[in-house]
């Protein structure tokens, strides 16, 4: 069958016997109809015809609707829609709250009124939802126990007289209490905090007298005991109506639960409420008496208990049932009763404040009765008058100046661009003011008494209208950093016929767009490493990676040509190296000896000697080697040399000079001088008196501290002939600063003037011209240096010196040499230097006294017999103990350091060793033994002395077996008690190593560590926690939870406030429990009535998945999610049709046209027609509700100046992001325009006071005890808190974005914000999770001074979260706002969501 694309959707279901074809509505917009096309308004159009993306923005808040309850605390709701504008073409949806709430109808309900959750369940009475076993007369009651905390705001109802329950609604009506034991209320399906005054987010609580917000002064405590015994029921006490905080305990006589005494309760009429007719309840039970809930522990407890915190509204009789052996009961009771005589001091004042009108128009309002104290006429809590009858309310009419009616606010575009289609009407309930004719939107429920008009009407599209048809976008010109795309556009009609371009001028032609505006991946590099060598040339490295945004990506993504170097050469100081001299002569003239050579560490071109530490010790050449010459002959005996006087010969011996005492300039140096005998020993100096004594101290000169610096020569003093040229010579230090001439060597001062010759003067004859041109060649010329002079410069020539060579002797005096050459000022060799001032080429050197050979004692002989060797230490050192290389001493005089020993013949015995024994232990470390004896060659034993020359083998040695079992003790457990005397335990086991277990018998029982010890804890407090019995599991099958009551008791087991017990030691009151697996079944309800009274509508029914628990005697049902149930879910909706709707007519308006002027005051027009549902003209519309057809429009701004950044770009062609002057609300303001390269630049305001006074913070610290507010709320870094709030952050702002059309600061725009810690925080926002005790720490600051803007008076902040609180201060002119906000956890944000309204000053 031929199908019309996009216009109609046909479904075809084929079976064997029939074929069913159904016509439905048009295809959904966006459904693909052809390749590259999709459905739009019933036509198949190219996807490229979509317009640019439009982000949605919030509209204004609607008025608060009707209260959800008439008494007992209800909720009013206000709504806003994301329709200013709606998001289109993939634009973003609005962010923020769509609904807000406030409390209403706070007066308490009448006592006889049914519980609010009861009312909601009773609404389903008689509806059995086709559940097997339910009667048509079924009655529904609320289900409270066994419901999960997260499901408390769903409507679970139980079949009266049965345990089966079901979820009948997804959520209860707003304002329904979350449970019977809490003041919190349900709002939109979530449990929200409320006080006993039924106000949302209130912290009002009842005092011990049951008074909301009371001060515990309106009641007194009645307490007593009862221990008399008589068979049967015995009256203990009568508990009057109005009593609160009831606590009754019956302590067992025998310390067991069975003591034959049981508590009972009855009414004042004798009707038993608990344990009557000699039938006792053993398990826990809850009894509801009016609005009060009484809990009973059950009789199977050592301490039987009845307690209730609620106020009872009837008298109760407490009794004890005594049976069996008639033990004396031990009953203790206490309760609070109102103080007598105080009830008449309060009365209902009927002249309270007027309450809100019941309807926006034509409603009724009434005064709220206020409970008033007679003594001072002050209003008090309504519960003080709870038992007094309320007066008749005072009422009056309100809202009489307006009417409520349905209003058509606007119409959508026609669904068909050509031919018949449909459009949607915006129909809402409106308040028409009779005074000014204005229309205001209100909640639709206010118009429920009038039938709502149809929100859809027929329309026809103009078939001649053309539209742009686009080709596909070209590739982006750049892959990143912002490129552009292009596409072709042709004008076509709905049949895709090509039209002239002027037929499509009503649509914007978009053929270019920006693309790939994200930044390109960039090379990033780390810091350079240290140079990998300590001297000479080396390399250093750094890490180079490809960065894209915040992530590291593969290097293949970045441009390899632009990759920075990851390695580069580096130059350290010049390396020192070893220099070895020639080998010296052999130390002997015959036989075997050794020879030496000098090894030095030198540096640089001039081979300057440096310390040996400057060279690598591992590569040092050897400075000694063996040498052998011809064999020695016996020496002839020579006569002893004597002095001429017959005495021993002596001489002066001196060491090397020390270093000069000055590092530059002149200093002194010393050397060691001593008188020595012919054997080298030190003699008295008088023995050398006949010889001249060498100097032991002398002056020395090192490199001058300063150096001469000469400027350039001046011009010659004459223009012809012979003259003089001069220059300035100064002495400078190493920093190139001028110092005194005494700091430089005056012998080497450069010349300050010199002769110069120019061209011969005209007056000279030809015979003198040559002499004038070359004055230095005259016979009579004498250089300045020929006479006595201290300079060494002659025509720029000077002496140059090299470094001093090594000293020829390491001690007792030597000499050093250096190179001295004559060079000209260009460094070339010359001959004309002054010989008189030529520097020395040789100088004496001294290194201190010569060291002497010192020998130690001989060591043991290597063999006791048969020829061995023994050694001793022989070193070259000074008397001070300073050691030197052997070459520093006379090697010919070096004492021997080894000699022969043990030359006698060894006996014939040898040591014989037997086999080793087994290890002395079975585990751990032990030893082995063997026999060792001296044995002759024939095998006979000898005394040990015969083998003394040989090393005796060991007779024992160590051995090790496997690890021994040892006692391993674990860590001590916590003390068994938190107070008093307790015990600690630990695990003790016998182990081998760290893993393998062993039997305890394998470890030594004597050394076994103790496994238990006493532990004294602090003295026990007077109050401790007591945990009661666990309740039933919350689930009858599957996984659930169970709860128990944990109370704080004193030493008498009486309940006290929980604050008196340690919260850290409180036992858990919740644990998981599991039952048998669940079974599930679909449950369906009855179909609802048709959703319309005429035309096509739909019916609905409740479909839920419930679990079935098959017990021993019954079935129990409970609600579950749909994923558990088998098969397909039954339908929950079906269409319905009642009758044709009657013809009606409504006013229909078109869109406003453009303003008649571009500047100044003009008018705008629109079409207004009265049409029927069939689009026929009609006169049935009410004339008084006809919308206006024209209105004035104001364009009073300066037409020559731009009003937004887009106009700046269009008028001036500017494309740079910068500050521009704009006309804003008729005044000139400086606005920063960002994104000027794009088609939609954004406006920002530069904050004059910067980010120091414009910041937002969510504080990150959280108190360990959130109920405190330490340090009077001041912030301290040493607080007892932890810094772990995951939502914490701190953002500061240099610029803020402003929407010039709505004059709102966009607080969520963070383009010019700097987040220095944690998460980004929007502008004007603060919060924390610090404390629940009104102790805010989060801060924000706004300073608009100097911007020309200020906040409007309507700028407000709202607190969100748990225990949220804020303290916000605004300056009178609105330019300065500071605030502190927080909670546990809480925050404050601008009341308008993402915007903050401002005005122009």
UniProtKB/TrEMBL annotation:
Region entry Disordered, spans: 620-649
Query: Is the keyword Zinc assigned to this protein?
Result: yes
All residue ranges annotated as the GON domain in the record: 1201-1401
Instruction: Name its co-factor(s).
Output: Zn(2+)
What GO biological process term is on the record, naming one?
extracellular matrix organization
Q: Which UniProt keywords apply?
A: Disulfide bond, Extracellular matrix, Glycoprotein, Hydrolase, Metal-binding, Metalloprotease, Protease, Repeat, Secreted, Signal, Zinc, Zymogen
Cystine pairs: 6-39, 33-44, 67-104, 71-109, 82-94
Q: Which SUPFAM superfamilies match?
A: TSP-1 type 1 repeat (SSF82895)
**Location of this chain's protein in the cell:** Secreted, Extracellular space, Extracellular matrix
SMART domains per the UniProt record, alphabetical: TSP1
What is the name attached to this protein's record?
A: A disintegrin and metalloproteinase with thrombospondin motifs 9 isoform X10
Q: Ribosomal protein as a keyword?
A: no
Could you give one GO CC term from the UniProt record? Answer: extracellular matrix
Q: Name one GO molecular function term.
A: zinc ion binding
Where is it predominantly found?
secreted
């Amino acid at each position: 069958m031929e199908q019309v694309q996009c216009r109609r959707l046909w479904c075809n279901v084929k079976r064997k016997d029939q074929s069913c074809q159904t016509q439905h509505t048009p295809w959904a917009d966006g459904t693909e109809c052809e390749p590259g096309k999709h459905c739009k308004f019933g036509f198949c159009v190219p996807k490229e015809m979509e317009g640019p993306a439009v982000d949605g923005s919030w509209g204004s808040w609607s008025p608060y609707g009707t209260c959800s309850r008439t008494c007992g605390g209800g909720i009013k709701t206000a709504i806003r829609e994301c329709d200013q504008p709606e998001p289109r073409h993939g634009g973003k949806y609005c962010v923020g709250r769509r609904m807000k709430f406030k409390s209403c109808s706070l007066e308490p309900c009448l006592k006889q009124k049914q519980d609010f959750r009861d009312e909601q369940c009773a609404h389903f009475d008689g509806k059995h939802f086709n559940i097997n076993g339910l009667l048509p007369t079924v009655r529904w009651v609320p289900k409270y126990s066994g419901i999960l905390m997260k499901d408390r705001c769903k409507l679970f109802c139980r079949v009266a007289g049965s345990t089966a329950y079901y979820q009948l609604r997804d959520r209860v009506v707003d304002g329904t209490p979350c449970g019977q034991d809490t003041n919190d209320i349900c709002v939109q399906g979530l449990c929200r905090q409320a006080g006993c005054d039924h106000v949302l987010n209130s912290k009002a609580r009842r005092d011990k007298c049951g008074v909301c917000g009371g001060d515990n002064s309106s009641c007194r405590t009645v307490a007593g005991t009862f221990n008399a015994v008589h068979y049967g029921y015995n009256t203990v006490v009568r508990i009057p109506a109005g009593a609160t905080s009831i606590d009754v305990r019956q302590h067992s006589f025998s310390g067991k639960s069975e003591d034959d005494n049981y508590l009972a309760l009855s009414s004042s009429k004798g009707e038993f409420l608990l344990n009557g007719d000699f039938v006792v309840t053993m398990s826990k039970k809850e009894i509801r008496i009016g609005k009060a809930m009484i809990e009973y522990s059950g009789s199977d407890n050592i301490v039987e208990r009845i307690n209730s915190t609620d106020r009872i509204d009837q008298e109760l009789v407490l009794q004890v049932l005594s049976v069996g052996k008639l033990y004396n009961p031990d009953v203790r009771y206490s309760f609070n009763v109102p103080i007598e005589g105080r009830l008449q001091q309060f009365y209902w004042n009927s002249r309270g404040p007027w309450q809100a009108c019941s309807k926006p128009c034509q409603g009724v309002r009434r005064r709220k009765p206020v409970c008033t104290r007679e003594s001072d006429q002050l209003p008090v809590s309504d519960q003080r008058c709870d038992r007094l009858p309320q007066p008749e309310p005072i009422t009056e009419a309100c809202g009489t100046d307006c009417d409520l009616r349905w209003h058509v606010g606007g119409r959508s575009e026609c669904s068909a661009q050509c031919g018949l289609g449909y459009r949607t009407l915006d129909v809402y309930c409106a308040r028409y003011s009779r005074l000014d004719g204005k229309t205001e939107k209100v909640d639709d429920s206010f118009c429920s008494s009038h039938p709502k008009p149809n929100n859809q009407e027929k329309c026809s599209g103009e078939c001649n209208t053309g539209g742009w048809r686009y080709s596909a976008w070209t590739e982006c010109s750049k892959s990143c950093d912002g490129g552009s795309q292009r596409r072709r556009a042709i004008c076509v009609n709905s049949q895709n016929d090509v039209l002239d371009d002027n037929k499509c001028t009503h649509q914007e032609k978009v053929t270019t767009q920006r693309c790939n505006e994200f930044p390109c991946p960039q090379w990033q590099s780390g810091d350079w490493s240290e140079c990998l060598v300590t001297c000479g040339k080396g390399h250093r490295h750094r890490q180079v990676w490809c960065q894209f945004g915040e992530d590291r990506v593969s290097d293949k993504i970045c441009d390899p040509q632009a990759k920075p170097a990851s390695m580069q050469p580096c130059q350290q100081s010049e390396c020192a190296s070893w220099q070895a001299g020639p080998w010296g002569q052999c130390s002997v003239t015959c036989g075997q000896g050794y020879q030496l050579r000098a090894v030095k560490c030198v540096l640089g071109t001039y081979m300057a000697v440096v310390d040996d530490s400057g060279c690598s010790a591992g590569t040092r050449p050897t400075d000694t080697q063996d040498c052998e010459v011809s064999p020695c002959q016996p020496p002839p005996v020579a006569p002893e040399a004597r002095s001429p006087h017959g005495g021993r010969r002596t001489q002066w011996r001196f060491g090397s000079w020390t270093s000069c005492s000055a590092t530059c300039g002149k200093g002194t140096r010393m050397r060691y001088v001593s008188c020595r005998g012919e054997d080298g020993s030190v003699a008295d100096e008088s023995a050398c008196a006949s010889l001249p004594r060498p100097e032991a101290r002398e002056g020395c000169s090192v490199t001058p501290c300063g150096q001469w610096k000469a400027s350039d020569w001046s011009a010659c003093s004459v223009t012809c002939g012979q003259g003089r040229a001069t220059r300035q010579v100064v002495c400078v230090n190493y920093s190139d600063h001028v110092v005194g001439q005494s700091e430089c060597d005056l012998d080497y001062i450069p010349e300050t003037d010199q002769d110069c010759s120019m061209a011969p003067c005209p007056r000279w004859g030809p015979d003198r011209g040559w002499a004038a041109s070359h004055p230095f060649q005259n016979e009579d010329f004498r250089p300045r240096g020929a006479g006595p002079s201290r300079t060494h410069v002659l025509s720029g020539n000077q002496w140059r010196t090299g470094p001093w060579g090594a000293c020829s002797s390491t001690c007792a005096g030597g000499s050093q040499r250096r190179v001295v050459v004559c060079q000209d000022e260009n460094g070339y060799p010359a001959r004309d230097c002054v010989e008189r001032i030529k520097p020395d080429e040789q100088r004496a050197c001294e290194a201190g006294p010569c060291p002497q050979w010192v020998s130690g004692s001989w060591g043991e002989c290597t063999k006791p017999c048969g020829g061995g060797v023994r050694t001793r230490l022989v070193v070259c050192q000074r008397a001070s103990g300073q050691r030197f290389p052997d070459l520093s001493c006379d090697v010919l005089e070096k004492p021997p350091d080894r000699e022969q020993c043990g030359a006698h013949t060894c006996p014939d015995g040898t040591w014989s060793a037997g086999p080793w024994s087994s290890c002395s232990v079975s585990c751990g470390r032990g030893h082995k033994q063997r026999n060792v004896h001296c044995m002759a060659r024939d095998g006979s034993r000898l005394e040990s002395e015969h083998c003394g020359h040989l090393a005796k083998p060991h007779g024992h040695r160590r051995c090790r077996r496997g690890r021994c079992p040892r006692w391993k003790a674990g860590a001590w457990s916590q003390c068994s008690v938190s107070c008093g005397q307790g015990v600690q335990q630990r695990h003790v086991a016998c182990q081998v190593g760290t893993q393998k277990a062993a039997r305890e018998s394998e470890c030594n029982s004597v050394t076994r560590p103790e496994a238990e010890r006493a532990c004294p804890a602090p003295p026990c407090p007077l109050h401790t926690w007591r945990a009661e019995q666990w309740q039933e599991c919350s689930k009858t099958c599957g996984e659930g939870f169970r709860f128990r009551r944990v109370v704080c008791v004193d030493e008498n087991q009486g309940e006290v406030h929980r604050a008196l017990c340690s919260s850290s030691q409180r036992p858990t009151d919740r644990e998981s429990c599991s039952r048998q697996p669940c079974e599930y079944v679909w449950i369906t309800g009855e179909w609802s009535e048709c959703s319309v009274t005429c035309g096509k509508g739909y019916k609905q029914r409740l479909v839920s998945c419930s679990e079935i628990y098959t017990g021993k005697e019954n079935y129990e049902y409970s609600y579950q999610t749909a994923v558990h149930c088998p098969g397909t879910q039954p339908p929950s909706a079906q269409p319905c049709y009642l009758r044709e709707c009657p013809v009606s007519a409504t006013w229909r308006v078109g869109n406003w046209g453009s303003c008649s002027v571009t500047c100044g005051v003009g008018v705008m027009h629109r079409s207004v027609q009265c049409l029927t549902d069939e689009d026929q003209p009609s006169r049935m519309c009410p004339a008084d509700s006809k919308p206006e057809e024209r209105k004035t429009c104001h364009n009073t701004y300066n037409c020559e100046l731009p009003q937004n950044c887009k106009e700046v770009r269009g008028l001036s062609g500017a494309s740079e992001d910068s500050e521009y002057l704009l006309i804003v609300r008729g005044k000139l303001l400086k606005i920063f325009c960002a994104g000027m390269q794009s088609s939609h630049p954004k406006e920002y305001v530069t904050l004059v006071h910067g980010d120091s006074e414009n910041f937002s913070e969510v504080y990150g610290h959280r108190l360990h005890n959130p109920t405190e507010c330490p340090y009077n709320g001041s912030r301290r870094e040493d607080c007892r808190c932890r810094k772990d709030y995951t939502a914490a952050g701190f953002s500061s702002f240099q610029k803020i974005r402003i929407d010039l059309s709505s004059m709102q600061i966009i607080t969520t725009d963070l383009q010019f914000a700097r987040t220095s810690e944690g998460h980004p925080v929007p502008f004007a926002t603060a919060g924390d999770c610090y404390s629940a005790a009104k102790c805010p720490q989060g801060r924000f600051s706004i300073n608009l001074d100097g911007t020309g803007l200020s906040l409007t008076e309507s700028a407000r902040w709202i607190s969100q979260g748990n225990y949220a609180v804020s303290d916000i201060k605004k300056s009178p002119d609105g330019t300065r706002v500071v605030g502190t906000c927080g909670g546990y956890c809480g925050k404050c944000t601008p009341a308008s969501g993402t915007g903050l309204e401002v005005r122009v000053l």
